[in-house]
Amino acid sequence: KDFAGEIHMVLNCHRERRYMTEKQRHLTNWVPIAVPFSEWHVSPPPFNHWLFGFFPILAPAVFKVYDGMSGFTCPSSYVMGREKARRLFPQLSGRMIKYCAVFFEAQHNDSRTNIAIALSAAENGAHIANY
User: Fold this and answer.
1) Please, are residues 85 and 92 in contact by the beta-carbon 8 Å criterion?
2) What values do phi and psi take at 106, rounded to 5?
3) Would you give the distance in Å from CA 27 to the centre of its chain?
4) How far apart are CA 23 and CA 42, in angstroms?
């Protein structure tokens, strides 16, 4: 039951993100998130579940499923080798990594959205104030 609830939450987040990136392109952008892996198997496994021990191997497929849950509206996740990862993400340069998986999340500038809403309201006759 918890798993189904988590999937439902992720789907709702994707729906909200799709709406924001389509309707407010000027207030959103895509941010790459790099997940470096230095081992092929993690022990002890996270959350004490044996399958999570294999996440370094399964990550590319898991991120493709995540892309699919968004209806493939986000930039596609991908895998990069150690050298390219170090070049694109300099903060990884001191770490011994096997490879890096990259997926994307939408970033939303909520303060600019609030200002846009206030200005639109004022243009339509509303009185606005700040405290």
Assistant:
1) yes
2) -85, 140
3) 16
4) 41
C-alpha span between 105 and 18 (Å, rounded): 11
**Alpha helices, DSSP H only, in 45-90?**
55-69, 82-88
- The pLDDT score that the predictor gives to residue 121 is 94
pLDDT score of 99: 93
| Angle made by CA atoms 98, 79, 57, in degrees to the nearest 5 | 55
- In this prediction, residue 124 carries a pLDDT of 96
- Sign of the Cα torsion 104, 109, 114, 117 reads negative
**Please, what are the averages of pLDDT over each run of 10 residues along the chain (131 residues)?**
84 90 89 92 88 92 93 93 89 86 91 90 93 81
> Phi and psi (nearest 5°) for 41?
-145, 140
Q: What whole-number distance in Å separates Cα of residue 102 and Cα of residue 31?
A: 10
Question: Alpha-carbon distance 31 to 75, whole Å?
Answer: 9
Give 17's contacts (C-beta < 8 A, 6+ positions apart).
70, 73, 74, 105, 106
